[in-house]
């Protein structure tokens, strides 16, 4: 088995931040998962319901790999990305990095990984690869999937080459940390304001605060939208709370990121955003519980309540992001530690 030396194989809640944490800790940069998520401007919202989809999807973060690109920009990291349609070349890209003692991030379809107890197709899944032999690869995945795990090379190749929504062509990537990192204000303020601006001015009504408001109207129809409400509604709620989101559709992670930032920067808008995202996180957990109960009991009244809470959430998150968008602009008291 060829392995990267000194690997810290800790899993975390979300797959992309788990992967980023492994790659950065190997170079001596140990940031919390909320900090990785926030510096990557990871928070978002999308209500997605296509003609070929069996049931709507509520997403709470930016597109796969966008977080990684954002984080690299925020910290001045050297991000090296390899993509190819050749399976042979794809594997050579990985082994070259491992042989040089660098862990590698992979984007793939989780369905083909041996260790997934309940395989589902998700082409935006991320893992860190740190070892291999002729039969298997050593990976770090989320805590939910076991942290340090192994999978067969044949399944790994299929996962990396899979085509479909959110997939990439055998994407692999490495990160290099610069000798000098930007100071707290230089990295935190742009990451927060970029996230806030995108959330406040989405290009379509399915995204950002407009998407949450739209979800509040459409969730009321979900019992009629579903062929099997007892299956579909609890599954949708489970995706919000436990499917690598850190709970509350990523709002727990963003709340905790803002909380960490309040210890680094003295800012009224930042404290306001932190307080409001604490409220938002609790409301998202309430929405998930109401959707679960509506499905298991066939109770439309609970969906009406969930829709009302989503309406409140649209206003709360809009207010939070408006405050955060002012960070460093009309907040002259913002200073470093």
Walk me through this protein's architecture.
The longest helix has 30 residues. A hairpin with an 8-residue loop joins strand 2 and strand 3. 48% of the residues lie in helices and 14% in strands. By secondary structure, the protein is of the alpha+beta class. Helix 1 packs across helix 2 and helix 6 packs across helix 12. The protein has 12 helices and 9 strands. The mean pLDDT is 94. Strands 1, 4, 5, 6, 7, 8 and 9 form a 7-stranded antiparallel beta sheet that branches. It holds the Pfam family DUF4872. It comes from Streptomyces pilosus. This is Lantibiotic ABC transporter. InterPro entries: BtrH_N (IPR026935), DUF4872 (IPR032369).
Report strand %: 5-15%
Regions with pLDDT < 50 over 5+ consecutive residues? Answer: none
Cα-based radius of gyration, to the nearest Å: 20 Å
The best one-word shape is globular
Largest sheet: 7 strands, antiparallel
Distance between the termini: 45 Å
| Overall average residue pLDDT | 94
Number of strands: 9
Q: Write down the secondary-structure element order.
A: EHHEEHEHEEEEHEHHHHHHH
Number of helices: 12
The secondary-structure class comes to alpha+beta
**Helicity, as a percent range:** 40-55%
Oligomer: single chain
């Amino acid at each position: 088995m060829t392995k990267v030396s000194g690997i810290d194989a800790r899993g975390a809640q979300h797959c992309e931040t788990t992967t980023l944490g492994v790659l950065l800790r190997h170079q001596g940069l140990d940031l919390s998962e909320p900090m990785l998520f926030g510096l990557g401007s990871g928070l978002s919202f999308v209500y997605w319901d296509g003609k070929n989809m069996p049931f709507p999807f509520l997403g709470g973060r930016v597109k796969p790999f966008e977080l990684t690109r954002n984080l690299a920009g925020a910290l001045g990291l050297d991000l090296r990305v390899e993509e190819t349609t050749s399976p042979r070349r794809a594997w050579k890209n990985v082994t070259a990095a491992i042989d040089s003692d660098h862990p590698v991030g992979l984007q793939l379809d989780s369905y083909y990984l041996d260790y997934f107890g309940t395989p589902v197709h998700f082409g935006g899944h991320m893992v860190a690869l740190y070892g291999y032999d002729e039969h298997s690869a050593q990976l770090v995945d989320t805590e939910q999937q076991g942290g340090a795990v192994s999978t067969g090379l044949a399944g790994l190749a299929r996962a990396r080459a899979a085509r479909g929504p959110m997939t990439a062509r055998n994407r692999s990537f490495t990160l290099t940390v610069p000798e000098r990192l930007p100071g707290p204000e230089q990295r935190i303020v742009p990451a927060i304001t970029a996230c806030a601006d995108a959330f406040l001015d989405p290009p379509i009504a399915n995204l950002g605060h407009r998407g949450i408001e739209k979800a509040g109207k459409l969730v009321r129809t979900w019992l009629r939208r579903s062929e099997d409400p007892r299956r579909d509604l609890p599954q949708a709620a489970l995706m919000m709370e436990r499917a690598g989101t850190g709970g509350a559709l990523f709002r727990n992670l963003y709340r905790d990121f803002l909380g960490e930032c309040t210890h680094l920067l003295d800012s009224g808008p930042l404290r306001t955003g932190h307080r409001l995202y604490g409220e938002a996180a609790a409301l998202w957990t309430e929405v998930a519980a109401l959707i679960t109960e509506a499905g298991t009991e066939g109770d439309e009244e609970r969906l009406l309540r969930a829709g009302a809470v989503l309406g409140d959430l649209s206003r709360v998150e809009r207010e939070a992001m408006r405050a955060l968008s002012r960070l460093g602009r009309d907040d002259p008291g913002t200073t470093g530690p």
